[in-house]
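User: Before I run my own analysis I want an independent prediction to cross-check against. Here's the chain; please return only the structure tokens and, at the end, one sentence I can use as a sanity check.
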Amino acid sequence: MADLRWGIIGPGRIAPRLVRALSQSRRGELVAVASRDADRATAFAAQHGIGRSYGSYDALLDDAEVDVVYVALPNHLHAKWTVKALHAGKHVLCEKPLATSVDAVDEIITTSERTGRTAVEGFMFLHHPQTILALELARSGALGRLELLSGTFSFFLTNPIDPRISPEMGGGSLWDVGCYPVSFSRRLAGEEPERLNAFARFDERGVDRTFIGQLLFAGGLLAQFDCGFAAPDRERMEIVGSDATLVLDAPFLPAPDGPPPSVTMWRGREATPIEVASVDQYHEEVEDLMSVILDGRAPRLDLASSRGNVATLVALDQAARDNVAMASAQDAS
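Assistant: Structure tokens:
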């Protein structure tokens, strides 16, 4: 029997990756899944060999044989069900973003402390060897003085009923994919941005379909990123130093969910590929949480850092909306 038994709340698009991750684990076992649609939960359980299925989220939380809950719901439900799971005595892995407001993150932090249960945000790329290596190289001085970090993450999203473009469900490209380069930037800087600015193209419902942001950190590092739902697949991070540039060509979704991991050191026009192990970053993510729970190790991504990321995303979103409002006012004058 595994050390920790897992349940999934929300058998949607991302959930099969957790199934795959836990199938490789010796410490964790997936035992239950819940959906508001009982038939959907039953079908998912049958497809993936999961022992129990539930037609409500609360029913899974009442299952005494579930130790850890994976919250894979639309963004606006992340905080609510993370808090409910903690109150039910479960540890929680919640898909990013952990919440869409700082107040909601604070409630998660308080609830985690009061219940003695662990909650972590699911930023899987932080657990991949290529991210760990890139951050270590940049911090070591191998690139010289750090000057600029530039990132991009976009893809076409055309389904009109997809939760990721629903304003009521916390949709928008910033919250869905822009959060990745923002997290990477803050991780590299080791601090919160001192100043920021943003511009976006919003649709008629107020959901950003294309977004660009800029961050200035007190230590002098500049970061810029773009993200969107209206351009072909683009995924890249560049860490620019005074002596060299480090390029990651698949920084967020490498194999088995995308192209092989690729890290290249550029000195002028000379490129040096750096070999990186190809692993399942979702497996690394679940193993990290289980090590926190079972071994008492500190999480790679703690709630304080998640709070900082949400605060930055909220500020970027507001900056973009303020800039649109300012431009509209100028046009009307």
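Sanity check: The domain at 4-122 is CATH 3.40.50.720 (Rossmann fold).
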